[in-house]
């Protein structure tokens, strides 16, 4: 009971996020815990809430100095006394803090790992009653992680010196098995209670944009999709950072630069301006990021290709830490890949490492060319199995563009590479296919090949796109010999002998950015009054400036959105807003209520209904049933899905609902498009699927009837529809 009371009183929340309650309860009951949760999963609450309930002090070990100050500020706003000790403090402040710590003034003390074994600190801790030691970013203890901090190795000895042994809690977003094992072993966690939440970040919309006009794309995104919001633009080099910043500034945007060639002061200034919303855009090399905890970054654009998937996931992961919808976009250009490959070769590491680097890069190149779900591709890279086929919230899942059969072109390309003896790179292959008179082509006698000029009607750009797609689909590999060489794989045989067909999205070379929206597992964006939201944001910015705090410390974006949706104008209503606890209400309630009231007096307003509190729609449905509300209000396709998820066959569902089987198939397809998990292989086996794909290859996709006629009797229209949908052919 007190748990829920404190959750609401201090933090302003009524419910826990996935995985929180289990480890919070365990920690309070004296058990060690391990929380593996993605960024934005709500790890801080897992030690902050226990700290308010445990008798002694909670020590939080964190590697990020800038983050400590933010957290302490935010806790102060919530009415929880906390402080930090690190090297940024002058001596007087330090001594004062020590005094207050000794006087048991604080519930939480943040410390940098460097302090742990300083004798003065060890003495101090002896005098305290320590209830909990929380190790944030616990992967820093592991050499296998990307972020090893030698001082983290001193934590176990430090804990051993505390008597009685406090509860030890470790938290990280890194989920590799090796790292998790090391954390458990090195910290000597005692039978820890674990919450391991998937790696996925459902609120991030991943997309790859192929555009010749990167700056134009930036301009559109900044003005149309995310006006006045925070975004990071990652570039490969300092020079690009400088030029993109200059261009954005000349267009009137508030952009700052960040790279290793700038003075530390200039960098720090820009970082602070970005955190405090004085700059909206940060244009940066990969030097920018560690220690950035700004939660409301709405878009991360990679102006150039990142180096590999790990780096990409880290950098993209800096978007949307507050759980609100955010976009992660790669602006793809083939020239960037060439640049990255040259960089790898220039670095002259060992041959094994070089192969690894090429492989890593290749995965990212494949990611840029796949037609499959991008989220799924990311999860697979990190060894997680996705529980969906299409997430419904990435560039590919949202892209409705037509699929075309490119088998014939693929055959021409593959046989050309075969005739060139698998010994040449992309540009040479394209030159031969297009019948170039290039000196080298003629010298090597490639103009005598039967495939010379066989695709001369195609642009080099589109051939490149098709070839890279063949690589992504595994029919070709790019090997890292002296220079990158295209080679056929065994799978290419199936294409050449006509047994397999290849389809590809008719690539709009410039995919339009999808409007911020989420679906699948992500919570839907809250519909709110945009004008009021903007007013509340500027009010928040003014208060933040006066107090010298980052705006999100006052209220998170999500809380402002709720205010702009529900128009709370009394204390009770205001406290219902998620993220508004007692202390924040007392500090800011009056000003915000006044702003909302005044807005409501001068504008026509629509107060949005509160959604039914629900973790997922199953709960919502139960709730509706309990309230006697008709289920018929649910879309028909969801009702079919419910029955399907309950184990019924399509035929049974059709019978029960008195609908045709075709309608049920259409319902399930619709649900699949909306991100609900459906395993289509239950319906059509591989052999049938292959036969249907072959039939489509012969008669085309214009109408279903000819396909049906090209197949044996036992194949139904529904089988055909399912295969078309499953393979994303339309
Ligand atoms: P992490 O450290 O795991 O990246 P944070 O602790 O910063 O995540 O939390 C991410 C966001 O989720 C923050 O904006 C936080 O206020 C919010 N949050 C945490 N717990 C809850 C909860 N129980 N209900 C609603 N929002 C929460
Ligand atoms: Zn997807």
Biggest sheet, open or closed, and with what strands and sense?
A: 7 strands, parallel
**Share of helix among residues?**
40-55%
- The gross shape turns out to be globular
> What's the structural domain tally?
5
CATH superfamily of the largest domain: P-loop containing nucleotide triphosphate hydrolases
Indicate the proportion of strand residues.
5-15%
Explain the overall architecture:
- With 730 residues, the chain is an alpha/beta fold.
- The protein has five domains: 195 residues, P-loop containing nucleotide triphosphate hydrolases (Rossmann fold, 3-Layer(aba) Sandwich); 181 residues, P-loop containing nucleotide triphosphate hydrolases (Rossmann fold, 3-Layer(aba) Sandwich), CATH 3.40.50; 103 residues, Arc Repressor Mutant, subunit A, CATH 1.10.10; 73 residues, HRDC domain (DNA polymerase, domain 1, Orthogonal Bundle), CATH 1.10.150; 110 residues, no CATH class.
- The protein is built from 33 helices and 17 strands.
- The strands form four sheets. The protein has a seven-stranded parallel β-sheet, with helices on both faces. The protein has a six-stranded parallel β-sheet with strand order 8-13-12-9-11-10, sandwiched between helices.
- Helix 22 crosses helix 26.
- The radius of gyration is 29 Å and the shape is globular.
- It starts with a helix and ends with a helix.
- About 5% of the residues have low confidence.
- Bound molecules: adenosine-5'-diphosphate and zinc ion.
């Amino acid at each position: 009971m007190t748990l829920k009371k404190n959750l609401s009183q201090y933090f302003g929340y009524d419910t826990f996020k996935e995985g929180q309650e289990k480890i919070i309860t365990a920690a309070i009951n004296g058990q060690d815990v391990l929380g593996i949760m993605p960024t934005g999963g709500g790890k801080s609450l897992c030690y902050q809430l226990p700290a308010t309930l445990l008798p002694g002090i909670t020590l939080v070990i964190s590697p990020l100095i800038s983050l400590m100050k933010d957290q302490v500020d935010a806790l102060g706003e919530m009415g929880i006394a906390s402080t930090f000790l690190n090297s940024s403090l002058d001596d007087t402040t330090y001594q004062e803090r020590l005094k207050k710590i000794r006087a048991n003034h604080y519930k939480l003390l943040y410390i940098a790992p460097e302090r742990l074994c300083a004798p003065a600190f060890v003495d101090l801790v002896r005098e305290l009653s320590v209830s909990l030691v929380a190790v944030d970013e616990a992967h820093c203890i592991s050499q296998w992680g990307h972020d090893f901090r030698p001082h983290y190795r001193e934590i176990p000895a430090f804990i051993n010196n505390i008597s009685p042994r406090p509860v030890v809690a470790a938290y990280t977003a890194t989920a590799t098995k090796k790292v998790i094992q090391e954390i458990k072993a090195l910290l000597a966690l005692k039978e820890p209670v674990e919450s391991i939440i998937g790696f996925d970040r459902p609120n991030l919309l991943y997309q790859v944009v192929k555009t010749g006009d990167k700056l134009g794309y930036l301009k559109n995104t900044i003005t149309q999709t995310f006006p006045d919001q925070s975004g990071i633009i990652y570039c490969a080099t300092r020079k690009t950072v400088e030029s993109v910043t200059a261009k954005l500034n000349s267009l009137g945007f508030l952009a700052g630069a960040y790279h290793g060639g700038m003075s530390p002061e200039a960098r720090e200034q820009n970082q602070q301006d970005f955190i405090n919303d004085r700059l909206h855009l940060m244009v940066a090399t990969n030097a920018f990021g560690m220690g950035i905890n700004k939660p409301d970054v709405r878009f991360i654009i990679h102006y150039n290709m990142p180096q590999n998937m790990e780096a990409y996931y880290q950098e993209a992961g800096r978007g949307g830490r507050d759980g609100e919808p955010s976009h992660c976009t790669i602006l793809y250009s083939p020239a960037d890949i060439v640049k990255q490959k040259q960089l790898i070769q220039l670095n002259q590491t060992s041959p094994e490492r070089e192969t690894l680097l090429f492989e890593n890069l290749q995965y990212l190149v494949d990611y840029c060319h796949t037609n499959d779900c991008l989220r799924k591709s990311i999860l697979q890279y990190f060894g997680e199995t996705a529980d969906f086929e299409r997430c419904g919230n990435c560039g590919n899942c949202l892209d409705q563009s037509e699929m075309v059969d490119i088998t014939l072109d693929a055959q021409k390309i593959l046989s050309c590479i075969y005739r060139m003896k698998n010994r040449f790179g992309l540009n040479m292959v394209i030159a031969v296919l297009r019948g170039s008179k290039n000196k080298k082509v003629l010298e090597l006698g490639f103009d005598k090949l039967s495939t010379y000029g066989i695709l001369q009607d195609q642009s080099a750009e589109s051939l490149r796109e098709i070839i890279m797609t063949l690589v992504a689909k595994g029919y070709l590999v790019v090997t890292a010999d002296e220079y990158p060489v295209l080679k056929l794989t065994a799978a290419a045989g199936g294409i050449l002998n006509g047994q397999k067909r290849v389809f590809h999205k008719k690539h709009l070379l410039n995919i339009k950015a999808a409007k911020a929206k989420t679906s699948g597992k992500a919570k839907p964006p809250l519909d709110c009054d945009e004008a009021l939201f903007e007013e509340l944001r500027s009010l928040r910015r003014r208060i933040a400036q006066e107090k010298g705090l980052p705006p999100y410390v006052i209220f998170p974006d999500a809380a402002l959105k709720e205010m702009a949706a529900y128009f709370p104008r009394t204390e009770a209503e205001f406290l219902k807003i998620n993220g508004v606890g007692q202390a924040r209400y007392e500090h800011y309630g009056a000003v915000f209520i006044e702003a909302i009231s005044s807005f409501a007096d001068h504008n026509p307003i629509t107060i949005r209904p509160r959604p039914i509190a629900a973790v997922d729609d199953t709960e919502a449905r139960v709730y509706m049933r309990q309230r006697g509300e008709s289920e018929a209000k649910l879309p028909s396709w969801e009702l079919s899905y419910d029955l399907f998820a309950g184990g019924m066959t399509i035929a049974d569902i059709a019978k029960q609902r008195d609908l045709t089987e075709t309608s049920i198939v259409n319902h399930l397809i619709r649900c699949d498009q909306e991100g609900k998990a459906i395993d289509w292989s239950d319906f059509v086996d591989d052999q049938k699927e292959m036969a249907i794909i072959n039939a489509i290859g012969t008669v085309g996709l214009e109408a279903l009837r000819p396909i049906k006629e090209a197949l044996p009797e036992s194949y139904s229209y529904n089988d055909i529809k399912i295969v078309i949908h499953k393979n994303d052919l339309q």
